[in-house]
Amino acid sequence: MANQISWRSPSDSGDRIPSISHRFQRSSFYVLESDDARAKHCWLRLFGLLDEPACGEILLEGRRVTGLDSEELGEILNRKLGFVFAAPFLLPSFTVLENVAMPLFKVAQVDAREAKSITETILDLVGISELVEVMASRLSPLQQHLTALARAIVHHPRLLIIEELGFGLDAEAALRVFDVARRIPARLGTTVIATLSAGIDFASADVVLEIGAAGIREVRKEPKT
Fold first, then answer.
1. Which whole number is the average pLDDT over 65-93?
2. Domain segments of the chain: what residues?
3. Residue 25 exposed, middle or buried by CB count within 10 Å (0-12, 13-18, 19+)
4. What predicted TM-score, i.e. pTM, was given to this entire model?
C-alpha cells in the first residue's frame, strides 16, 4: 500500500512497553485498546511521531521517519499528520472558519479564497457548515469537538491521531463524533488511529488493535451481508 506505517520498537520515554511489529493500511480506522492505559497512551504518541522510539524504526509511506532532526520531523508532522487531542484547544476569539482554516495557511500556504473553499468543504463533511461564522467561545462541547476534528483534517493528512475520542462528552455526543470520524478514511484516504474515552464502548468499531504483554493483535469485524 502507498500509505503504510510499520515499526518494531519500545518507547524511549522510560515507560516499559512491549515491542511490536505492525503495518497500518491506508483508508482504515483503527481503535487502539490495551488493559494498560499508560502503555496505550505511549503507543499512541509513538504512532503520531510525538515520541522517539528507543530502537527499531517507523516508516511512513515507505520513508524512515525515526532519527530525523527537529526541522525534518516538524515538516512531516505538519504536512502528513493531523491530531485531535482530548481537549479541543480552539481559539475562543476566532470563528469556526478561522480555527479550521489555520493549518492551510501554516502548512499549505494557500491564499485566503482557496482556504475558505477547502475549509467549507471539510465543514460540510464534518456536518457543521452552518457554524462557519460562529465564534468558538459560543460553541457547545459537541460542536467544539467537531470543529477540532475538522481542523485536524483540513489539510488532508495521511495519518490522523485521535486521543481519547469522546472525552468530556455524554455518550450520545461522543457517538456522534465517532460516526463522523469513521467517514474520514473513505472520504479522504486517511488512516485513523484512535483511543476512546474511558467508559465509552463503540461497538461499531470494525478494526481494533489489542496490545498486551504478548504483542499486538488486530481484530477486524466481518462486513455485514
1. 94
2. 5-220
3. middle
4. 0.89
